[in-house]
Amino acid sequence: MRGVGVAPSRARLVDAAVACVLEQGWEATSMQAVRRRAGVSNGSLFHYFPTRGDLAAAVVGAGLADHQGALWGELHTSTGPRDGVTRLVTRHLRWVEEHPRLARLLLTAPVDVLRGSIDERTAADNRGFFAAVADWLRGHGWSDRPDLAVVVALWIGPAQEYSRHWLARPAGSPTLVADDLADAAWRTLGPLLTPRKE
User: Fold this and answer.
1) Among the four given CATH numbers 1.10.357.10, 1.10.240.10, 1.10.10.10, 3.30.70.120, the one describing domain 59-193
2) pLDDT in tens, 6-22
């Protein structure tokens, strides 16, 4: 998850923090455990991340980038609107299963807390991701109505809600319901992306 142009010590700290979160969750991740895992000094740790909140923002940014990269990969390689819509839902569920602790951090934080914890670079990357999704939708017939936030909520919202329930009590695989959720997303979005037959 290392970014281009990021200082090596900072990148090591972010990688170490993400690894700790993946292994034990954010609540059990201490600043010193991250520092030790990254192999940097206290000075480096507190230079890049003066507070635990600053480190949390970096972890959230790395998690969002990884999640959005996985989703964009599905859209970018899809063969059409139905394929893209359904593959994105399935990939979201698979990503949650592969990264449950990181997914819990991203999906259970209140939206205002999540937005408040990301830095400007992450916010800009997030805007770029949604702009690319909007372009993909337009390329498949979306007329900018309803609003993008509504389209995304209809598309991925049910899978996110299912993921929250699964994360609270993991049993089986969330991908077991992927076909149902993906088909429901297509039934909802299909009329926005394909011409209606008179």
Assistant:
1) 1.10.357.10
2) 567 888 999 999 899 88
